[in-house]
Amino acid sequence: MSKSISRRTFLKSGLLAAGTVAAGETIAEAAAAPARDQHLATLIDITRCIGCGACVEGCRETNAPKFPDPQKPFPPMVPKRVKVSDWSDKQEVDDRLTPYNWLFIQTATVMVDGEETELTIPRRCMHCTNPPCVKLCPWGASRQYQNGISRIDTDMCLGGSKCKAVCPWDIPQRQTGDGLYLKLLPSLAGNGIMNKCDRCYDRVARDELPACIEACPEDVQTIGPRAEIVAQAHARAREIGGYVYGEHENGGTNTLYVSPAPFEAINAAIAKGPGQPHLGPAQDRMADANHLGAALLIAPLAGAATALGRYLKAARRAGQSRSDNSSSDTR
Amino acid sequence: MPAKTASNAAGMMPGQVRACYMTLLLFMALSGFGQMPIFKRYYIADLPGLEWLAQFYVTHYIHYVGAAVLLAIGAYYLTRYLVAERSRRRISRYGAIQGVIMLIVVITGGLRVIKNYEGYYLSSGLIVFLDILHLLTVMLFLLVGAWGLLARKRWTTNR
């Protein structure tokens, strides 16, 4: 009495395995390929920026209704090492990112064509094509729209700050004392809400321009389908003998800067620190795990195949010894 | 001689494999809970050798690798049960419960893996639902498993 797996079944399961892997990779690629084509990207031409700050003002005025509204006194944090992040009395600060300031102007004095030049650079969330702040939020407070815009839903956010930790530029900023965590376990879990540029997703949905673009008197920013913006960025860079930043960083973002000076020089020249993001290299850190996707599909198949293989080997051995015994019988 | 009851019968995993499996579950639990920003907050990542618990990309990667190994082990024993052991074993009630719970863990985990690729836009509601379901079923699996460990339960019993 042997339970044997027919060759046909084995082949069928092998084909199923191969098909599953192929399907999995195809699904992943198929989603990524047209996905970026649907994204809205922004070109920021640093050569045009005069550092007037109109974009910063425009952003603050338009987004003020979305700003945090913390309740004091804050619930005491457990343990005490949990830092309070309170910008409610410093809402006017606009030389760095804060929960009340989602866009600011960074300055860099660099050499351009042999002349010392001050460059002014509007900085905000890069709106990555595969944003870790969205994908790695353990709760689900952050989401990405099909046009590529990423947004933290401050009604859902617990202020865990992981989004900031996994962001290559540390963009999201926390305000203690506001948000859902107050209704759950305010002392033990959560710590406020995270805020960042949301690309004026609501204005964009009404076919209006983001506030910073509308406010700019120098046409520094251009918004459009990603492929067009990337092409424009490279064309402009060629025109001025300049450089592009944001196309490939972190696996790709929807914010492309064009500069007359190399970004390594700019990065060295800007003030960097809390709320003041760098302009340096940014590896796609989600890629490492995402590349394991195929392994996750193959692993159970490998396990099943090993079990099957061992069983078949044992069945063959049992079958052989049975035929050896019967051939030695004498009647 | 104590009677051979369901709780005394040996399961399919030999002792050393079972020890590795338990260790794997430990790392899955640590790297999984480490997705939430709790280990740094609660000083656990301050312990020497445990700094990695607060490094989100590290715990993320470990969780993926561990998931692959777990899937391989699960598929191996499920296949072995189906093709070779059904004549002399059956799934115990404990095994059936843990099996269903683990299935939900795997499905919710798998959906979250897919979500992490570019081009997948899930609503906040769905992400939160998958998050909570994954967390609750994992905690249930660990609780039932802890009880099973103490009560010497196995996923299969002899017929």
Structure, explained:
The complex is a heterodimer of chains A (331) and B (159). With 331 residues, chain A is an alpha+beta fold. Chain A has one domain (36-287): Alpha-Beta Plaits. Chain A has ten helices and ten strands. In chain A, the strands form four sheets. In chain A, strands 8-1-10-9 form a four-stranded mixed beta sheet, with helices on one face. In chain A, strands 2-3 form a two-stranded antiparallel sheet. The longest helix of chain A is centred in the last third of the chain and has 36 residues, at 293-328. Chain A starts with 6 loop residues before the first helix and ends with a helix. Chain B is mainly α and 159 residues long. Chain B has two domains: 14-86, no CATH class; 90-159. Helix content of chain B is 62%, strand content 4%. Chain B contains four helices and two strands. A two-stranded antiparallel sheet of chain B has the order 1-2. The longest helix of chain B has 30 residues, at 56-85. The model of chain B is unreliable at 1-8 (pLDDT under 50). The interface between A and B is large, with 57 and 47 residues.
Rg of chain B, Å, rounded: 18 Å
Question: What's the domain count of chain A?
Answer: 1
Discrete helix count of chain A: 10
Q: State mean pLDDT of chain A (0 to 100 scale).
A: 91
Strand order across the biggest sheet of chain A? 8-1-10-9
- Note the overall shape of chain A: globular
Share of β-strand residues of chain B: under 5%
SSE run of chain B: HHEHHE
Portion of residues within helices of chain B: 55-70%
Proportion in helices of chain A: 25-40%
Report the oligomer. heterodimer
What class do helices, strands and sheet pairing of chain B give? Answer: mainly alpha
Q: Which structural class do the helices and strands of chain A define?
A: alpha+beta
**Extended strand count of chain A:** 10
- What CATH calls the topology of chain A is Alpha-Beta Plaits
